[in-house]
Amino acid sequence: MVDLLQIIGTYMQDVFVRNLDVWVVVGVVAQAFFTARFAVQWIASERAGRSVIPTAFWLLSLAGGAMLLIYALHRKDPVFVAGQTFGFFIYLRNVYFVIRESRV
C-alpha cells in the first residue's frame, strides 16, 4: 500500500509540478470554464424547477471550448483537436441563436 501511494504521489508530482507551464495553466483555466457551465446550468434549473440552459452556459461553453481547442492544437493531440473543433462550432451556433433571439 505504501508503494502504491508513493507511485501515485510521484505520478501526481510529474503531472502537476514538473510539467507545469503556461499551456498547462491555459488548459486548467479552460477546464474551469467548462466545469463552471455545469454549475450554472444546474443552479438555473434548480431555481426554475425544470431543465434550463441559460445563456451563460453557452458563453462558458464557447470560452472553454475555444481555449481547450487552442490547448489541444498546441499539444498536437488529434483526438482532442477533433472533439473540441466539433464542439466549438456547436457552441458558436447556439450563441448565434441566443443573440438572434435577443434581437427579436
From TrEMBL:
One Pfam assignment: LAB_N
Presence of the UniProt keyword Secreted in the record: no
Recorded GO CC terms: membrane
Keywords carried by this UniProt record: Membrane, Transmembrane, Transmembrane helix
Record has Acetylation as a keyword: no
Transmembrane segments: 20-40, 52-73, 79-99
Any one GO molecular-function label of the UniProt entry: lipid-A-disaccharide synthase activity
An example Gene Ontology biological process: lipid A biosynthetic process
Lipid A biosynthesis N-terminal domain mapped to chain residues: 26-97
InterPro entries named among the record's database cross-references: Lipid_A_biosynth_N, UCP028440_lipidA_biosyn
Highest taxon of the lineage: Bacteria
Protein name: Lipid A biosynthesis N-terminal domain-containing protein
